[in-house]
Amino acid sequence: MAISYRAGPVAVGRRLGPEEFVSVRTAHTHDPLGDWGPCGACDLGPLSFCANMGRGTVSSLARVQCTLRYDAQDTMFREGDDGTAVYVLIAGAVKVYKLMPDGRRQITGFFFRGDMFGFCLETAYAYTAETISPVLACRLPMTLLRTLSQTAPEVQHRIMLRMIGKLATFHDHVLLLGRKTARERVASFLLSLSDRACRRGEPPSPLVLPMGRADIADHIGLTVETVSRAMTRLKRDGLLDLPSPGLVVLRRPKALRGIADGLTPEAA
Amino acid sequence: MAISYRAGPVAVGRRLGPEEFVSVRTAHTHDPLGDWGPCGACDLGPLSFCANMGRGTVSSLARVQCTLRYDAQDTMFREGDDGTAVYVLIAGAVKVYKLMPDGRRQITGFFFRGDMFGFCLETAYAYTAETISPVLACRLPMTLLRTLSQTAPEVQHRIMLRMIGKLATFHDHVLLLGRKTARERVASFLLSLSDRACRRGEPPSPLVLPMGRADIADHIGLTVETVSRAMTRLKRDGLLDLPSPGLVVLRRPKALRGIADGLTPEAA
DNA sequence: CGGAGTTTTGACCACAGTCAAGCTTAGTGG
DNA sequence: CCACTAAGCTTGACTGTGGTCAAAACTCCG
């Protein structure tokens, strides 16, 4: 069955010509260009799953790969669609969600630069992917996962490691949703964004939130109002600053960690 | 850091001698012995990740594999332990959970016959695994995931498919925890158990619950009392029968599905 | 049978949801 | 350049679902 409670187009993404690759490779300068392979379609460097691969392997990937550009609020694919491709984000932010017939929404993940998503079983995507900001993505055919086992088992192994990592974050998120209070959820969410920024080579603290409060709420199982109240309270308690809705300064990350892990009693 | 808020031993599992394999292979008769490989350490048949593999591949797996028996309530491994092995369940039931310092617990998954678990990144398990009933398990060294990319990429691909499947169930569970009501959660949980029983070749309806209400509660983010109330109400509404606490008869699975998916208004 | 542990039921309560109003910010056009 | 609008964020008052605490009933053992 095709699941699509809210109709709307799926954006195909604008294909970048070869001459545009150069600008892509220099568009993001906040991390050093590492010893990346000769694919040339992205500037992910060590963040890429194909970093440090042999020339032959990477160029065979480059042959099946294509680089796409999306606008903000584009739907990349929809729950129930034929799952023909996996994506690696080069720039921008994506949210992935499931809908219930009455409109309730659960955002199951946010993806940023370097992240890989779109794995699916038996042709149908289990969720919808929508861009939050303008996006540049590397698209790889789903069949690659199968052929890699023959041609480049090492790449397949790397992809598997990413999946194991994703499974671990799901365990954490399930704990958050099942057992944490509103305050703990917001603290955990902000810290996880901070951690991921670090892993991308960005600073941990002036945190940019590309998503709105509604998206945060639908990710951590709360309402917009509760998210807002929790953040205001964290600010009042001196744990963070909110210069603008989309910017968070972590003032006392250790204390925030304590709250996220439930070490600090709610009253404090 | 070693995370172990409640001390207690980790059971090593009793190693089965070769002479005991025969009894293992005939102990469970509820699904036909399929065209399983020559490993001989289990009777999983088509449920096994190594079903229909070449003799050479399977016998190389058999060389590194070992079959273990655990009692009920044994801890197989603990969050923070060195992740040296993955497990395939041959018989029995296992729960996998994370703890918070104050004792809050989130059960992130239940595993049954044929299921595979214990994947981990960077040596440390992200959760604790504890048996619910007596268990028979096939233990495989974690390093296998790496060597398989060289020796048997096809097996690695199958394991990856299992991971993708597990990712999909996490998406569903995150939706359940983030956006469903108590009634919907219980209905969803029972149906998911039923689905999995079917996939194992068991009947969908007289459903055996090896876990207690407390475990169910800690899995679907509720309290024991709320789980109990929700089940009682589903029974009162004629959707299921509860001949005993550990047995559930799904009387109207379609209607139950409607509740699980939020199609039926709460009042009804 | 008896007794421990689990499940169910009941009464009350609190955290987060709902509804509604104000506030801030960014974008638009006069 | 500034009114005007619209969207998103914040704050407030009230409500309801599910949590807490307590006790009764059931199940499953020995």
TrEMBL record, chains A, B:
Pfam families in alphabetical order: cNMP_binding (PF00027), HTH_Crp_2 (PF13545)
Cited PROSITE patterns: CNMP_BINDING_3 (PS50042), HTH_CRP_2 (PS51063)
One GO CC term, this protein: cytosol
Keywords: DNA-binding, Transcription, Transcription regulation
One Gene Ontology molecular-function label: DNA binding
Domain of life assignment: Bacteria
Residue ranges of every copy of the HTH crp-type domain listed in the record: 180-253
Residues of the Cyclic nucleotide-binding domain: 49-118
SMART domains, per the entry: cNMP, HTH_CRP
UniProt xrefs under PANTHER family: CRP FAMILY TRANSCRIPTIONAL REGULATORY PROTEIN (PTHR24567), FUMARATE AND NITRATE REDUCTION REGULATORY PROTEIN (PTHR24567:SF75)
Protein name: CRP/FNR family transcriptional regulator
